[in-house]
Amino acid sequence: MHQSFSEIEGTATSLATVEAAVDRATHALAKLQRDDGHWVFELEADATIPAEYVLLRHYLGESVDAGLEAKIGAYLRRIQSSEHHGWGLFHGGAFDVSASVKAYYALKMIGDPVDALHMANARAAILAAGGAAAVNVFTRIQLALFAAGPWSVVPTMPPELILLPRWFPIHLSKMSYWARTVVAPLLVLGALQPVARNALGVKVDELYTGEKVRPGTKAADPKWLWTHGFNALDRVLKAGNGLWPKKLRARAIQACVDFVVERLNGEDGLGAIYPAMANSVMMFDCLGYAEDHPARAIARQSIEKLLVIREDEAYCQPCVSPVWDTALAAHAMLEAGGNDAEARAGRGLDWLKPLQVLDVKGDWADEKPDVRPGGWAFQYNNAHYPDLDDTAVVVMAMDRARAGQDREAIDRGVEWTVGLQSRDGGWGAFDADNSYHYLNNLPFADHGALLDPPTSDVSARCVSMLAQLGETRDSARMRAALDFLTREQMSDGSWFGRWGVNYIYGTWSVLCALNAAGIAPEEPIVAKAVDWLTRIQNADGGWGEDCESYALDYKGHTPASSTASQTAWALLGLMAAGDVDSPAVTRGIDWLAANQEADGLWGQEMYSGGGFPRVFYLRYHGYPKYFPLWAMARYRNLKRSNTRRVAHGM
């Protein structure tokens, strides 16, 4: 139960209590470090990924692993909503018809009787939402692959797309990295339209209402002219689908295969993300590659590495996050201080150092061919797709811990980062200037996540890194970046958080950057953000925001239950702005102290990671483990030194 402000006032946690909490959390986080020095925590999405995993095995006709399927079934039933009886996109989220159709199909495939109460309730909810005809494009493709839905409702994307010159308005290089890796094998599947083996013959005819439904788009700001133009193009492509010259079609399919094989990424998989990995396996299968063919075999093996299998449940992760987890845990350990914590941070950095991509020019080089590689990826390996966010966080940790020892790695990381600054002054996650917004009007792009434009949170991290390394706010690139962040500030003082939920995450990120860049707390851009964070604090002293904050009609902060990670972000943001002794910070520290669990860490069911706004969210199991420690240690350190400013970027 939330406390009122009056109940909290005057209960400031003593510095000794904070010190003890930091010690407990530090020891607990240390125990979770792997023997080789890295940290990695579970990364949980919604029902769609484990459901798709079940369907993939039946698509391929693999022998049924009844034990594993039973555990996945238990997981899917547990996360089914007791309120709307379907599945949402995050813990406690509203009904989502696409996620619900996939989960229902997977449970039926596993063997759940359709007249079981949970299945009947789910089916009623799906039918009330328009049925299987109302699902998004990717779910329509999944159904079509099982002949459980028509290909006619799937937007046509001919494989010849991959042969077009780069200047053409629709081109893979103009899409985000995740779209590229998902689409390339999907072009082959769409052209050949294979049918799943589906030995059990399971379909979901009962999920169709018989009525035509026009699913909506989740893209921001769709344009009528572009939308109708692309819809007309889709009708033309459908009409001429059988007229492509056979030699051209064969060359296009081979180009798709070549694209995939070059980026297979060993046992870490195509793009190191589940949808691309699964599509690559199905592509190899429909092209007749034997199960033991090296490309197909390693692509299939990569998917098994995403499974989380417990005694009673199992699920499939969308990807893994070891570089991100290790870098952030290292920052928390460095903040906590002490010989053991700093040594553990050093071991984490030792593990990270050889993962820097120095020899592969990935897809980012299409836009920036003259830039040398030097970034880090999010996963264990993903050489074609390092990202700016991870790179900035790793560089800052290395600089903070032992700048001289890692000078070459730091310099290459900075060189790659500044080389990928976009023309508007900001940074995207994986590419520069990936801002072809008209592509979000494609019928295929109803998820609204086709692009990777510059965002406030990633840009802020890059600014923090540059400032920590001594770049002044007067340099041309810093002026451009700070101008970008100024333009991106919302009218209420917050910033949008693309990769974390949401405005709390974005505002924390930018306040740290402004602090590192030397922007004084009194300047309006900072003061307005501090005022916003203070105003949205919950009565219990924590901060919370759920994934509905990504709604296209967002009009301001909607209160949500306090979470450990979001409370930590808000505190780190306020402290970066010099707001260390305020009642808001005191109450936030009180909340963290009161909610620390017996093991020394914090729990959190709520999802606070943004995969794709309005479409796909993430529960980072590591966030409530290292961010609260980081915030409490920062508070202790600042109270000890009575220093308003923080010397490093985060």
Entry keywords:
mainly alpha, two-stranded antiparallel ribbon, 23 helices, 650 residues, single chain, 3-stranded antiparallel sheet, 3% strand, disordered N terminus
Give a description of the structure:
- The chain is mainly α.
- It has 23 helices and 5 strands.
- Strands 1-5-4 form a 3-stranded antiparallel β-sheet, with no helix packed on it. A two-stranded antiparallel ribbon has the order 2-3.
- α17 runs antiparallel to α18 and α17 runs parallel beside α19.
- The longest helix has 19 residues.
- It starts with a helix and ends in a 9-residue tail after the last helix.
- The N terminus is likely disordered.
Low-confidence stretches: 1-10
| SSE pattern, N- to C-terminal | HHEHHHHHHHHHHEEHHHHHHHHHHEEH
How much strand? under 5%
Q: Which shape, going by the Cα principal axes? A: globular
Strand order of the largest sheet: 1-5-4
Mean pLDDT: 93
Number of helices: 23
Largest sheet: 3 strands, antiparallel
Compute the gyration radius: what is it? Answer: 25 Å
- Derived from helix and strand composition plus strand pairing, the structural class reads mainly alpha
Distance between the termini: 32 Å
Percentage of residues in helical conformation:
40-55%
Number of strands: 5
